[in-house]
């Protein structure tokens, strides 16, 4: 009940999928929290750090590369 209490309704939020895609149960918990966050906060924008799960590919998200993604690109790994 208190998870989103300190976040102003309609504000921009930043979320991360780090650790949330390791297994099916972690992903399902992340997706459940994501949808609850949207319901409770109705954010104006969602800044998303990390890999976007396929279940959220059609969402309007502002993609932010994680440090590890940037480092991998700099070192020539993608």
Structural class: alpha/beta
What sort of overall outline do the alpha carbons produce when their principal axes are compared?
globular
Mean pLDDT equals: 92
Tell how many strands the DSSP assignment holds.
Answer: 3
Largest sheet: 3 strands, parallel
If helices are DSSP runs of H or I spanning 4 or more residues, what is the number of helices?
Answer: 2
Percent range of helical residues = 25-40%
End-to-end CA span: 40 Å
Radius of gyration: 14 Å
What features would you describe in this structure?
The chain has helices spanning 24-41, 67-74; strands at residues 13-16, 46-49, 62-64. Helix 1 links the parallel strand 1 and strand 2. A 3-stranded parallel sheet has the order 1-2-3, with no helix packed on it. It is of the alpha/beta class. The mean pLDDT is 92.
For the structure shown, list the relevant keywords.
78 residues, alpha/beta, three-stranded parallel beta sheet, 3 strands, 33% helix, globular
């Amino acid at each position: 009940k208190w998870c989103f209490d300190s976040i102003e309704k309609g504000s921009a939020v930043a979320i991360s999928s780090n650790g949330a895609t390791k297994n099916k149960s972690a992903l399902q918990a992340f997706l459940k929290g994501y949808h609850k966050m949207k319901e409770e906060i109705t954010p104006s924008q969602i800044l998303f750090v990390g890999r976007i799960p396929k279940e959220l590919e059609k969402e309007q998200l502002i993609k932010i590369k994680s440090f590890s993604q940037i480092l991998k690109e700099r070192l020539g790994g993608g």
